[in-house]
Amino acid sequence: MPALITIAIVLALVAAAMHGTWNVIVKVSGDPRSTLTRATVAGAVLMTPPAFVAWLIAGRPGLSIEVMGLAALSALLELLYIFLLSAAYRRGEVSVVYPIARGSAPLLAVLIGLVLLGERLAPPQLLGVGLLLAGILAVTLPQTSGRATLPALATGVAIAAYTAIDRVGVRLAAPWLYGWLLIVLLAAALVVARWLGSRLTRPTDEAGRAPLPPPVTWKQAVVVGLFMWVAYLLVLVALSLAPLSVVAPVRETAVVAVAVWGVWRLRERQAAALKLSGAAATLLGVALLAF
To answer: Total structural domains in the chain?
Structure first.
């Protein structure tokens, strides 16, 4: 069991690095919703051929109604997540939105894992989770101000909800198959939502607003899509190996990287000592979780 948890932690850490990278790309794209839509569609197209080959090799496994329902519910929550994240990025900087959204999610996810899913952790692991959450909070709390706070916090709630659902889904089906169904459903939902939005939005609604920059090219969308969905597939595999209360905090360690980068490279000196202390607590928490 410890070996599986260690593997899950490594996968979640790699996913965290990829997740932080694509969030920066989405923010600087200027039109987060269009970028995320194109990236998700590109990811669905790219994932389908290898998923089909894996499906053939695995003996054509099926999906139960329960699994399909979980994937559909997760896709709806991720659709909400994308709209909330896009709204937050339009209102605030990535160094503000990202820590709040990703820092609040593991608090809820750990509670869901321990209280609702009945997960159990050894005392050192509980200490590790506590240090992780304390570290993430130390990094996150100095950022909680401005117009982006509310949508960023709502984004964290959506993350915790779909992560908990995915934790159940990957125990009932192969993570790669569940992940493929999830991205296809989300891509379809995004296309439909975008079409409905274009039909329902009146021309006068945009009057007086500054025009949005053009969306990213499809080549750029492919790069973002690969980062998004490879990272998410790694998280799904990690969830199949370790409890939600372990994986959820570890996958948010990118918050710490953003904080350290801001203090070191961007010279964001406000609450610098608190941010760096939080980074140290987070790293110690990850180490304890691996035992």
So the answer is: 1
